[in-house]
Amino acid sequence: MTDIHIALLGFGTVGKGVYETIQTHQTRLKAILGKNVKVAGVLVTDVEKHQLQDDGVLLTSNFEDILNLPKLDIVIEAIIGKEPGFSYLKKSIERGCHIITANKEMFAYHGNELLEYASRFNVACGFEATVAGGIPAIQTIRTLLNVNKIERIEGIVNGTSNYILSKMRDEEVAFQTALQAAQELGYAEADPTNDIEGYDAFYKAMVLSQIAFGEQPEWQRVTRKGISAISHSHIQLFSEWGLRVKHVISLEKGPRGIRCSVKPVLVGPSHPLYSVDGVQNAISIDADIVGNITLQGPGAGKFPTASAIVEDLIQLNASQGSYFKQEENVRFKKDPQVQWVILTKQTNQFLPESLEVISRVPEKAIFVKAKEKDINRLLEGNAELKAYQAYGQLNHELLENLQLNDIRLTRKVAVPKGI
Ligand SMILES: NC(=O)c1ccc[n+]([C@@H]2O[C@H](COP(=O)([O-])OP(=O)(O)OC[C@H]3O[C@@H](n4cnc5c(N)ncnc54)[C@H](OP(=O)(O)O)[C@@H]3O)[C@@H](O)[C@H]2O)c1
């Protein structure tokens, strides 16, 4: 084989980025791969909308035309939704093609099946672009797994939500104003539900779980919350206290299972995600030998995503078959006690015994340690209460600066690390 023949399924932001990167990096790709990389075909829904500079590239809206290309080595999928991407990739595998996808929703649902299928047909499957765009998160985790055990992953993986929260804090604007600005800048879709309600981040969390822990948690047991209900007055209040609201995916594997949540949380200045602002993404990985690694960078966009896909293309040569390390089935860990900040004016109110009060900020908030189920029970009966989980250490200096009138947290009582 002297050339590598590629088909692009989808020619939107991502597909065009890959196409242009391949054109502009021919010499470099040839030096690395020892072969020319040629785009042989492009699949879209509406051929009239598109024009390709190269007449030798087939532009079609019929997937069978792609499958029937005389030479085809790699199929790159960058279309939207579970289908038809999944079916197209299975057919590509059956034809003997390696596959690469950027489609996190499809991959969260069908990733394992696709990987097994690819392995059965002795082809490779790349999916770096499904999580955090240009950040090499998957590759880093795979490398770490050679000798490390991944213990915990926290990440900001949705640039739209992160941009909105940063703008609400920096410019003291309401959610709707920040969302509108994100839409005007092209960071948010006309229908932003996937981003602002946490679905996009949820899919990415499932892909990360699969690669890091060899399995996904049961979806219905994962807390998924978005950012649309966050008020900018809360954000300002937390800012005064030195805390920031971040939309964070969190994955942890203990001896008895995977704990996963996708939700807005509070982070303090010592937390690795504290200063990740705007459309930036970051993935913070705790592993048993190396300790903490935090990767930060552009989580989406034409060229950052193309970079991840072209990196996959190069890696495919080296590693074929399943990327996933399978582990034995494990049971879920119990709902652990973690830190929460309950916002309420009635700060001297009686709380159920299941909530351990750490401190009270008069007429503003009560800091507690509690299980999520007990917090949810409390919120169900009190519509005026709001609760945010706090990550990292709520340090003593911070609590003392708040001039709390009921500090029960003494220096002898350690706040559990990393909750
Ligand atoms: N945008 C990013 O920064 C980014 C980053 C990481 C991952 N992703 C993922 O990459 C995928 C593509 O995103 P995008 O932003 O490039 O989307 P996009 O700009 O909307 O482009 C989607 C492309 O897919 C084509 N398409 C849609 N449905 C199709 C179908 N049934 N058959 C054939 N072609 C179809 C469209 O054809 P027409 O042009 O004819 O409409 C269009 O060319 C998504 O799964 C997304 O989650 C995106």
From TrEMBL:
Domain Homoserine dehydrogenase catalytic residues, every copy: 136-314
Catalytic activity: L-homoserine + NADP(+) = L-aspartate 4-semialdehyde + NADPH + H(+)
Gene Ontology BP terms: methionine biosynthetic process; threonine biosynthetic process
Boundaries of every Aspartate/homoserine dehydrogenase NAD-binding domain copy: 10-122
Pfam families on file: Homoserine_dh, NAD_binding_3
A GO term, aspect molecular function: NADP binding
Primary enzyme class: oxidoreductase
Record bears the keyword Amino-acid biosynthesis: yes
PROSITE patterns xref list: HOMOSER_DHGENASE
Transmembrane segments: none
Keyword tags: Amino-acid biosynthesis, Methionine biosynthesis, NADP, Oxidoreductase, Sodium, Threonine biosynthesis
E.C. no: 1.1.1.3
Domain of life: Bacteria
InterPro entries with a match to the protein in the record: Asp/hSer_DH_NAD-bd, HDH_cat, HDH_CS, NAD(P)-bd_dom_sf
Pathway terms, separated by semicolons: Amino-acid biosynthesis; L-threonine biosynthesis; L-threonine from L-aspartate: step 3/5; Amino-acid biosynthesis; L-methionine biosynthesis via de novo pathway; L-homoserine from L-aspartate: step 3/3
Protein family per UniProt: Belongs to the homoserine dehydrogenase family.
Annotated protein name in UniProt: Homoserine dehydrogenase
Organism: Neobacillus notoginsengisoli
Organism lineage: Bacteria, Bacillati, Bacillota, Bacilli, Bacillales
